[in-house]
Amino acid sequence: MLTALLALMSGQTNPAQSTRREPARKGPRAVALLELPASGKARLIPITVMFDGKFYDAGSYKASPIPMALQRDTVYEAVRTGVSQGLFTVIGAFHRGNAWVAEGKWEPAGGTPTKKRPPELPAPRDDDQDKPPVLRRPQSGGRPEARSEAGSETPKPNPPAPPGNTPEATAPAPVTRSADTEHSPPDKDRPVLRRGKPSEEQPNSTSGIPAPAHPPTPSVPAEKISEQKPGAQMMPAISDAGGSEPRPYGYTVKPAEEQQLRKKMLALASNEIRDRARQLASEGGESAPAPTSSQKTKTPAVQSAPPSFEDTQFRIFDLSNSNEPVLVLTTKARLPHPVGARTSAGADLQYYVTLVAREDISGDLHKAFSNVTDNRHLDILPRLELIDAVDADGDGRGELLFRQMSDKGSAFVIYRVIGDQLWALFQGTPE
Length: 431
Known about the structure:
Number of helices: 2
Oligomer: single chain
Low-confidence stretches: 1-20, 134-185, 198-229, 287-300, 339-344
Number of domains: 2
Largest sheet: 6 strands, antiparallel, barrel
Shape: globular
């Protein structure tokens, strides 16, 4: 009887165990943004490094002076909605404005095969968990290269200065060559990011870059990295020596159903914009119609006509691979002003909206996150631009990667969707 009871209990627990997501990894695991211009060099912007379950700014983590995430021969796998798009191997790193950027070789998926990469290093031993993570130097004895935008190597005794907001801070600055010793043998027991060896082709090759979705347009100056360049492709990239394989996070629906969901999200955005307009009016703004004498003690009225939307982006994700859609809408909007309203100060008011919602089995939307700001208050309330879904910690579940933009600069933020709420896993510093 006891044996039968134990067997029954074991049979009841196995299904639950099989549906659990992968355990979170200790890392290190780096997330970056790959920039593929319509013409020119492929470049990588570091975002975050996860180590021992904690997230750090990849632009400063273990910098000596080159950040650990941009050490030479580090390999990143670019993903779009969780699907692999190719590999980027870091060759050199430099400063662009106040931010670190890497150049390297881009190999799109399905392209010409290159030399076989060396085998992945074994996982770190338990007795080495307290040691700082380092990247192994290339077997050829070379060392990471740091240089300026122009490619010159200029000696400089100190590491790069912290980010600033002065105009001078946006100019490319020369960086010292890494001071790491060339003769120190690599410690194979320390954690490393995904490693590779550069091919024999010329560095910074851009052959095989997939064609952009839109016709190429002239690029903005190199110093401006806070906004996506015209004609450029942006996608997350991951480096992890022992991470999980990419898995798709797209959620497929019929066109008619997608339009219906989009309509619901825009209706929700309209309500959020009106709430924001009321808040501004109650704080002394002039974006709402002037109240009458009978309304002076009440919340100022807001025009009931729907906002006009532009640059609307609507995405549907299945972040947990459980057939549960997560809806993300980003858009710009303006409210119409009735005749006679005080519009001299509010006519140019533009709203920026980012919404995340879940749909239940009844088709009703549940708001999980709302960020509504306007072009006059970006100094205190930044706007968010969705980049894509990405597995930030290697547990197989996708998170939402946003670029946060304000008057102070831009930064990256990663949110995890849990139920009807969003939790920030990583918040970068504006640069």
